[in-house]
Design goal:
The protein is built from 21 helices and 22 strands. By secondary structure, it is α/β, with parallel strands linked by helices. β17 and β18 form a beta hairpin. α1 packs across α11 and α10 runs antiparallel to α13. The protein is globular, with a radius of gyration of 30 Å. The structure holds zinc ion. Zinc ion (ZN) binds next to loops.
Length: 674
């Protein structure tokens, strides 16, 4: 048995155990996303606890885990006779590696056999293996877009559908989706985020007592491993039994109308999208009631469910980390808790509340969205989500205390981001899938055919038939199929888009520090960052001011990190432009070693002025051959055109700062018209 999770000192472990238990109790809860920094043993804990899922009955010999009581009528291994015969096995825990191929995930049709023997040979993928079990994705935020789409389709329909050249297979694929991620490495697409029923935040414990307890366990284990394992095994057995009991109880758990309204009120107040949040919260509350041996959902169950089901759903801006204001949740629950939790008789409206709803205008039994509020405390609505406006207000506020920007270390504010023009690396790359520059990819538009280098994955049927056709007579064709030889096979050549490394080099010196200018610069960079997030780029940030240049953000997939650095970026001092270019060249050199297929795009945000250190021409030469864009920040009636000169030296595209927003919308309109 697994006795690993007793060895991790993790804050949020109880939440994680609860979230997994609720999923084990009711599959309708819909999976868990575990967010946490490195070194929190997220995967180990998930694996250990997923082992607690109840076993499943399956049709013997079926590779698609059909339930003998109700076999999938379309099962590729079917048809099966409905009946009791079958085998019992633990629910599957299937791990989807982030770099998996499409075939690995959905399964593959053997096109060679289809063409030469006329048989439909399907090799099931991980989705088939995960049916009625758990599909586990470690580092789910790093999953390729294409796999995410396939996963979303399967999760939404509960089936896996594979089609190649008009041969198709479909089978049931219902699974609990469990993912782990380190948010520092980039966020998840909202659609995928929404697919997880619950989220849990974990981090390594800094509490000496907790850490000591873990060390104590470890020592106990080392001293007497068998005894220790036996103790935990007993605990695990008790857990498995509790899950089984709760599962049996679920169908009988009642969700009173008052609790349902409470759920609706909480979801409305937290401004979540759609009704999915309400459904998940209701199912999780029912599971929680069953878990505690109750036959009716209480406010306590709603609270426990909402804490886990809402944090990731009220997210609007990719720069907002998920989270939930728990005091607001408590406040909302108190307001809508219109009968006493320990009242056994589904409390009529006449029952006097013995709790919180004190002297106010009586118990709130209007089914309102829970916003009205009896007494002094401030209204809960509007608490979540305030970013953009906040930024704008504060920038006004700053202007009030204006005293020119020369002083060192001022922090200019950022306004609301806008859409920017597409900046791409010329030529065709071979980097990871993304949405910026042209590249040869596995999943783009078909542009031609070629001989495969290994096994054919993506058959180009026409080209294959054309290659085989001239030889049919010579090969003595008699049967129904083509006579195919290996070297007839052709695969599709596809072109799509790749993600790039977008390295921002930003002048943060005094020459830019007239504060309005710096706000415009930061807003432009923030807009570009947002764009980079949507295009699946890596981003990095080099700034230069005062004595030299600094790598404010080493290349990362976390746009949040970039946005945070940018917001707090101080400005002022002299302008060591050359130092900025040298630093950029160094960052690119290291990154080229680390991630060679990812092509860089340098975005230099400057007015071209240099008032300190180093020869700009020589520094620019270090960047020869790098695809570059110069965002020209020069303004005012008299212009020196220094950025223009720098751009021509770098062979860079020049985009005036003030034209960025306009260019973005022009490009969009142009695309619409085409
Ligand atoms: Zn089957």
């Amino acid at each position: 048995m697994i006795v690993t999770y007793p060895f991790s000192a993790v804050v949020g472990l109880d939440d994680l155990k609860l979230a997994l238990a609720l999923n084990a109790v009711s599959p309708r809860v819909g999976g868990v996303l575990v967010r946490g920094e490195k070194g929190t043993a997220k995967s180990t804990i998930v694996r250990a606890l997923a082992a607690q899922l109840p076993s499943v009955d399956v049709v013997a010999g079926c590779r698609f885990a059909c339930d003998p009581a109700a076999p999938d009528p379309g099962c590729p291994d079917g048809p099966h006779e409905a009946g009791p015969a079958g085998a019992r096995r633990p629910a599957a825990l299937v791990e989807l590696p982030v770099g998996a191929s499409e075939d690995r995930l959905v399964g593959s049709l053997d096109m060679e056999r289809a063409l030469t023997e006329g048989v439909k040979a399907f090799e099931p993928g991980l989705l088939a293996a995960a049916h009625r079990g758990v599909l586990y994705v470690d580092e789910v935020n790093l999953l390729h877009d294409h796999l995410v789409d396939l996963l979303l389709d399967a999760a939404a329909l509960g089936t896996c559908y594979v089609e190649r050249e008009s041969v198709s297979v479909r089978h049931a694929a219902r699974f609990l989706l469990v993912g782990t991620m380190n948010p520092e490495e980039g966020e998840l697409r909202p659609q995928l985020l929404d697919r997880f029923g619950l989220t849990v935040e974990v981090r390594a414990s800094r509490d000496p007592d907790e850490r000591a307890e873990v060390v104590r366990r470890r020592l106990a284990f080392d001293a007497a491993p068998e005894e220790f394992a036996a103790r935990w095994a007993a605990e695990e057995a008790a857990l498995a039994e509790r899950i089984a009991r709760a599962r049996a109880r679920v169908p009988g758990v009642r969700l009173p109308d008052a609790r349902l309204r409470q759920i609706a009120a909480v979801c409305a107040a937290f401004e979540v999208d759609g009704l999915r949040a309400d459904l998940v919260t209701a199912n999780a509350a029912i599971a929680h009631a069953a878990w505690h041996g109750r036959d009716e959902v209480t406010t306590e169950d709603v609270r426990a469910a909402a804490r886990l089901s809402l944090p990731h759903r009220r997210r609007r801006d990719p720069f907002d980390a998920p989270g939930l204001d728990e005091s607001l949740l408590d406040e909302l629950l108190d307001q809508t808790d219109d009968d006493t939790p320990d009242d056994p008789t589904d409390g009529g409206p006449g029952v006097p509340p013995n709790g919180p709803p004190e002297d106010g205008p009586g118990p709130a039994d209007e089914p309102g969205p829970g916003r009205s509020n009896g007494d002094g405390s401030e209204p809960p609505a509007g608490k979540p989500r305030d970013n953009a406006q906040d930024g704008a207000n504060q920038s006004d506020h700053h202007q009030g205390s204006d005293n020119a920007g020369e002083s060192d270390g001022e922090v200019a504010m950022v306004a609301a981001p806008y859409r920017v023009p597409l900046l791409e690396v010329p030529g065709i790359g071979e980097g990871v899938a993304g949405r910026r520059s042209r590249s040869r990819t596995a999943h783009g538009r078909a542009t031609g055919s070629r001989r495969p280098s290994g096994r054919v994955r993506d058959l180009h049927l026409t080209a294959t038939v054309l290659a085989a056709a001239p030889h049919q007579a010579a090969r003595g064709r008699t049967g129904p199929g083509l006579v195919l030889r290996d070297d007839d096979l052709r695969e599709v050549v596809r072109e799509g888009r790749e993600g790039n490394l977008v390295l921002f080099v930003v002048d943060a010196s005094g020459s830019m520090a007239a504060r309005k200018r710096m706000t415009a610069v930061k807003t432009a960079v923030l807009s570009l960052l947002l764009d980079a997030y949507q295009r699946r780029d890596k981003v990095g940030l080099v700034t230069f001011r005062g004595a030299g240049a600094e790598t404010a953000l080493p290349p990362t997939s976390s746009v949040e990190a970039g946005a945070a650095r940018l917001r707090s970026l101080p400005t002022g001092g002299r302008t060591p432009l050359a130092a900025g270019l040298v630093r950029a060249a160094e960052v690119l050199r290291v990154e080229r070693l680390r991630d060679p297929a990812r092509r860089p795009l340098l975005v230099l945000v400057t007015d071209g002025r240099a008032t300190a250190g180093g020869d700009v021409d020589r520094a620019a030469a270090l960047l020869a051959g790098t695809a570059s864009v110069v965002v020209d920040c020069e303004s005012g009636p008299v212009r020196l055109g220094l950025a223009v000169r720098l751009a021509s030296r770098l062979r860079a595209r020049l985009v005036p700062l003030d034209a960025m927003a306009d260019l973005g919308s022009v490009v969009r309109d142009h695309r619409k018209a085409v």
